[in-house]
Amino acid sequence: MQTSSDRHEYPSHWEADVVLRDGGTARIRPITVDDAERLVSFYEQVSDESKYYRFFAPYPRLSAKDVHRFTHHDFVDRVGLAATVGGEFIATVRYDRINADGRPASLPADEAEVAFLVQDAHQGRGVASALLEHIAAVARERDIRRFAAEVLPANSKMIKVFTDAGYQQKRHFEDGVVRLEFDLEPTDRSLAVQRAREQRAEARSVQRLLAPGSVAVIGAGRTPGGVGRSVLDNLREAGFTGRLYAVNKALQEKELDGVPAHRSVRDIAEPVDLAVVAVPAPYVPEVVAECGEHGVQGLVVVSAGYAESGPAGRERQRALVRQARTYGMRIIGPNAFGVINTSPEVRLNASLAPEMPRPGRIGLFAQSGAIGIALLSRLHRRGGGVTGVTGVSTFVSSGNRADVSGNDVLQYWYDDPDTDVALMYLESIGNPRKFTRLARRTAAAKPLVVVQGARHAAAPQGHAVRATRLPHATVSALLRQAGVIRVDTITELVDAGLLLARQPLPAGPRVAILGNSESLGLLTFDACLAEGLRPLPPLDLTTAASAEDFHRALTKALADDRCDAVVVTAIPAVGETSAQDAALAKALRSASASAPAKPVLVVHVELGGLAEALSAAASTAPQAASTAPGAGQAPRPAERPATAVSGPPEASPRLIPAYPAAERAVRALGEAVKYAQWRREVADPGKVPEYEDIDEKGAAEQIDELLSRGSGLTLAPEDACVLLGRYGIDVHRALPAPTPDEAAAAARTLGYPVALKTTAPHLRHRADLGGVRLDLTDEAQLRRAYTELTDLFGTPDVLRPVVQSMAPRGVDTVVRAVIDPAAGAVLSFGLAGAASELLGDTAHRLVPVTDRDASSLVRSIRTAPLLFGWRGSAPVDTVALEELMLRVSRLVDDHPEVVAVSLEPVVVAPRGLSVLGATVRLARAPVRDDLGPRTLPVV
Prior knowledge:
Layout: E1 16-19, E2 25-30, H1 36-44, H2 48-55, H3 64-71, E3 78-85, E4 88-98, E5 111-118, H4 127-141, E6 146-151, H5 156-163, E7 169-174, E8 177-183, H6 188-210, E9 214-218, H7 227-237, E10 243-247, E11 255-256, E12 259-262, E13 274-277, H8 284-294, E14 298-301, H9 311-326, E15 330-332, E16 338-341, E17 348-351, E18 359-366, H10 369-381, E19 392-397, H11 406-414, E20 421-426, H12 432-443, E21 448-452, H13 472-481, E22 485-487, H14 490-502, E23 510-515, H15 518-530, E24 534-535, E25 539-540, H16 547-559, E26 565-570, H17 578-592, E27 600-604, H18 610-614, E28 658-659, H19 662-682, H20 696-707, E29 713-714, H21 717-725, E30 734-736, H22 740-750, E31 754-758, E32 772-776, H23 779-793, H24 796-799, E33 801-805, E34 811-820, E35 824-831, H25 834-837, E36 842-846, H26 851-860, H27 878-894, E37 898-908, E38 913-915, E39 918-922
Parallel strand pairs: 5-6, 9-10, 9-13, 10-12, 13-14, 14-15, 18-19, 18-20, 20-21, 21-22, 23-24, 23-25, 23-26, 26-27, 27-28
Antiparallel strand pairs: 1-2, 2-3, 3-4, 4-5, 6-8, 7-8, 11-12, 16-17, 16-19, 29-39, 30-33, 31-32, 31-33, 34-35, 34-37, 35-36, 37-38, 37-39
């Protein structure tokens, strides 16, 4: 526990783990009075040049007065932060609040002087940049709005730290010193810089785990079998190109099957980049300490007995992560299946998979080891690794994902040149807001296909998951908005992945169908219609069709401007031989080469060997490997697949995916069509419009005044109408009518015709129950309706009746916005009543919503035709509806204190719309961790 330095309590929420530029980790925390010895030791390891740059003069050692000053802080006007590895300082930063004359000050002064010192051995790792992000966040919390820094002109590294941060700044030279001043308010550029650094650092941290130069398997036994020995054997048989070591305290031997053996990782003379930990959970802390002291860069912990086993295991897991981060190490696991990298330069199989997948272009991530096995097995059976084009590039099974998660792997895959398609099986999403951001960026560059388990149940015990109030359907819709290809099963995951890895994206939904079976062609036609595609009439080549007939038909179809993709259906002839299979496959590949921009798929019945012929007879089975230092034995000859095509991926022929059922092929094609459309749209995402009539300042003042009464406040109707009105959202007045006389008075105020309706919770928005009376044209009708309602449903104090002027007829809709603690602000739209409540026909978009988002939102629901003149009805004013959504989006984006807005019903008429009901809820603004400094998740 840290000791408070001065007049404020120790701010533990400033503590954070960060990933540095080289992929290692460091802990950032406030400096306290307990750190005097650490500070002195740190300063002694700093070079004289760095000391000169810090103090502008020779400064060989710190005086007692210096040590006191640099360790005693009030955490308001004077703050110091340290970056630590292994409990020792590697860098420090501090600020001192100053006034306009540069003298020490307190509030209301809002400027501070900032200074850094980084140990020479750790310079170039991005430590200062990370510290700047965190000290800036601390300063903003303490009402400091501007930093000033004085730097010697020769200290180019530190000048670059400030100038590259992306803040608005001023720079001038005086008295031989460069003076920098910059505002601390985050800008688009500073946020972009921060996220670019985050991507590079997290990608590098994963790369260190997937491309180590040396691996130690800790817990490898003498005899075959057992987890540790299995991983060691898999590494050796895969032909790992780096140095390989076996570690086990019980070992007396110097080697295990040719692999150098040691009793402790400390006994290894050379550096170790990656340690695979396969010892019982109680012994893991000792192993982690040995690895950290030896300088191991990362851990794959396959040991079980952690959070998946209950509360005690969860605490054990937290301690494991904290211990590893103390030494700057990242962890995959615990309870992990392992990692694979098929690159010829690495050939890493640090997993329990007994076979090494063939190198290819698909990246796989699975939180579950069992699902990881299933994915690798299905790719093996489907020929997923053909000719190095659709095999596996990297595979990560994260287990309990206590540290490294799918977000980190996405950061790595984003600019990994060896990965073209990313497939992910997720049982939970720890940080949905960040995952959505990373998924959008990744999907803009390469396809990302996701299947999510545990959709209707709690996440597995081992997973730390942020609470969310959003149903799974909403989360899925938001992922699709981010460009994620959402599928429901691992079969669909592989189906879509193979198509996207082998074929180009279709330019549109038009599909040509041809084949030698009329029935199979018709099934394919129906499947296309069910997927929302636009199939052309199937072309039946008859069962007598030869390979040449298929070639001619496919060439013609691909040349037709009316089609964007072709599905070929094929059934074998009786007694068909493998030679005929090969001839047909060759004909189809040759024809598809004439139109490389159009995808081709094959539907075949499972007779004969067409699928194998189409994939050039290469599977994901192990292939031969040359023996490298530490590689061990190559696979046995029986395991070496026959390959029809050799050479680098770019020299390989175009490969056509084959599917055993029309529905599976068309479903994969449908996902590719939707993804291609998203790629085209994301190039022009639209804009968030500006409205001159929005009173943002007035709304902020009103919100502050309302929240002064208390948080978690549902606004009174009058307050809600005023707040919405400041954003140009007019709500029809509804006057209370506790008695028939007051109802009549309200109607005279509003003017006839009017509506009389109840606002009781059990009857609100339920016109089907009879709690609404419309088109009341005079007082007699109003009083009669009032009596009917009270006779049917109860007394006025229960019904809470109101009178409202009639709105033009139209389509009743619902517009809502909510701030979810995990996903952020979400805007939703649907038709009022059964369509959204019973059928779940609601569309969602993340806030802020652009004009293109609003347009697509209106058209995304299944009942959208009702808005556009269905069955001869008049089309309604969707332009006005889109503007309303954009204004609601602006309101919740500008004011995070607005945590929920519900407009129901919104009656959209042929001209204009009417908001007849509105509910607004306020609360103190939730903390946005995605806008703060970079930090690893808290364990």
